[in-house]
Amino acid sequence: MKAIILSAGQGSRLLPLTEGRPKCLLPIGPRTLIEWQVWALTQGGVDDIAVVVGYHARDVQELLKRLEGPHLKIRTIFNPFYKLADNLASCWMARHEMDRDFVILNGDTVIQPRIFQKLLASPAAPITVTIDKKESYDSDDMKVHLKGEKLLDIGKTLPPERTDGESIGMLLFRGEGPKLFTHYLDDIMHTPEGLKWWYLRAIGQIAERANVLTCNIEGLTWGEVDFPADLERVSKLVEEWA
Hints:
Distance between the termini: 24 Å
Largest sheet: 9 strands, mixed
Shape: globular
Number of strands: 13
Order of helices and strands: EEEHEHEHEEHEEEEHHEEH
């Protein structure tokens, strides 16, 4: 299994913690954020990881070199548009890596290994979006609208009556899924608005025409690191995992 991690951004909402250091290199307990990601993915059988880098790319590359081994290949892809573009551009820069089944993970999502393992065991579909559910959602949550397990819509602005959960920032592409995704990426990047799109917006468009399923991981633990307060919360999570 191949994984692609999107870690090009600085994490400006975490300033001054990310002054001179990208979000993915922030320490969370005994490891950095990206080290927790690599650990979780390899526990699920990933042996091939491509990381999209941008802000302080060389620092990320140096750390990743130390994580490589005889059973784990890691390489980086530089996104020169990281200051100007949202993460669809990072996906587009990595499209040559989407040549077979793969999982994509947002650079700010920390997961316990069982989440990835549950995603891999989910029913086969071209694209599977990992979701969680809670009592209420805020404006920053990437909300999803479902019919059973099928994704109907995804976005931060979905109204409460059409919100059935949230995406945690990890998707699995199988079978025709990689080709379907890269086709949409290329089409969108050829439009004037391409640099300003989140890649999950493209997933929403695909869901209108193809079978995009979801994998509900309620009861399992994960965290998203966007603000300083998130670091404390996620640090407590990894203490339990360790």
